[in-house]
Amino acid sequence: MSRNSAIASDLEVENSSTNSRFPFTSFPNGWFRVAYSDELALEEVKPLYYFGRDLVLFRTIDGIPHLLDAHCPHLGAHLGYGASVAGETIRCPFHGWQFNGSGRCTNVPYTKEVPPRAQINSWPICEVNGLILAYHDAERKTPSWQVPEFTQWNAKDWTPFHRQSWKIRTHAQEMVENSVDTTHFVALHGAHTCEHAFLKTDGTILTNRMRGGYNVSLLEKLMIRGDIEIDYTFYGLGLYTTHSTGLHRVRSWIDATLKLNTILIFMLTPIDREYLDVHILYSIRKFANGAVTRAIYKKTLADTIKLIEQDIPIMENKLYRSAPLLCEGDGPIMQCRHWACQFYSEGI
Fold first, then answer.
1. pLDDT digit string, tens, across residues 117-135
2. In Å, what is the CA distance from 145 to each residue of 65, 205, 292, 335?
3. How far apart are CA 276 and CA 282, in angstroms?
């Protein structure tokens, strides 16, 4: 099969993946989490299912992760079940054919001639911030941008990242739009105030800032009033971070001010036409007092999970309005949509 034929075939798959709830494909282009680094040991093989495809993830003897379409071109065995790593290749469990990280067959054990068409589609991979990310592009274009390293990752003055995940019937763009929807933080999530500060785009990166205020009941008699500034940074539609900085005034038998810094990393990977694999990582900057750190971390993590889970029934049952009736104060939803258009291949 020629490259043009392969691309045309993939485009047919992409077009067929258009979810009836949305006027665009379920599988946008960009970087998406497919595993955590510590989930893939040296020479380990894992079956995956993302973007409506069977995939196989493996780590070769040199420590590098690779992602291929799952089925052997010989007689169709799924490499995620029973295959083994042989040096810098993966060996099919059915007949022993070996494929390198680029998907090219390097050895057929019972013949001298390797068929020239013995090739499996390979996916661009990067490993950063403890994540294994795959680059999806409907036309198989190579990545034109990378995900940066986050300074908070494994930093001593930040708590270890907590992991949480959900399978949600929605689209990555809907989750991104929800984060710039200012007024829903008041109506749905109980913030006292929330206002948009600014939005900026720089190629594949979008940054958005909001300011708000809320109360947190930490203990029975300990109420914290918080004024918070939240910076969102979106790296395509598959990954974004929220950095919050807040001054929290404690009102009780003590009178104190706490400065709280948090980071929340969202990872949004399409499973199929309907569902999204949503993962978060959450951490806060440590306080001098360990007990205070543990108490604040536990409470703010619980509140963060609660906020996300309040959104889920909305996300799973709402309609996408191509021309929404927006009012002043709704947030930069249309600017966000304009930025998101670049992650869909032309004509899809």
1. 999 999 999 999 999 999 9
2. 19, 10, 40, 21
3. 19
Helix%, strand%, coil% for the chain, nearest 5: 20, 40, 40
CA distances in angstroms from 107 to 88, 103, 115, 123, 207, listed in the order given: 12, 12, 10, 21, 48
User: How many residues are listed for the chain in this entry?
Assistant: 348
Amino acid letter for position 70: A
Spatial CA neighbour of 264 closest among 248, 285, 249, 286: 285
Q: Which two tokens stand for residue 322?
A: 């191509």
What are the tens digits of pLDDT across the range 312-333?
999 999 999 999 999 998 999 9
The H or E element spanning position 117 is none
Residues 163-166: contacts with CB under 8 Å, at least 24 apart: 163/36, 163/279, 163/280, 163/281, 164/279, 164/280, 164/282, 164/305, 165/277, 165/278, 165/279, 165/280, 166/278, 166/308, 166/309, 166/312
Q: Is 295 helix (H, G, I), strand (E, B) or coil?
A: helix
- Give the number of other Cβ atoms within 10 Å of residue 110's Cβ: 7
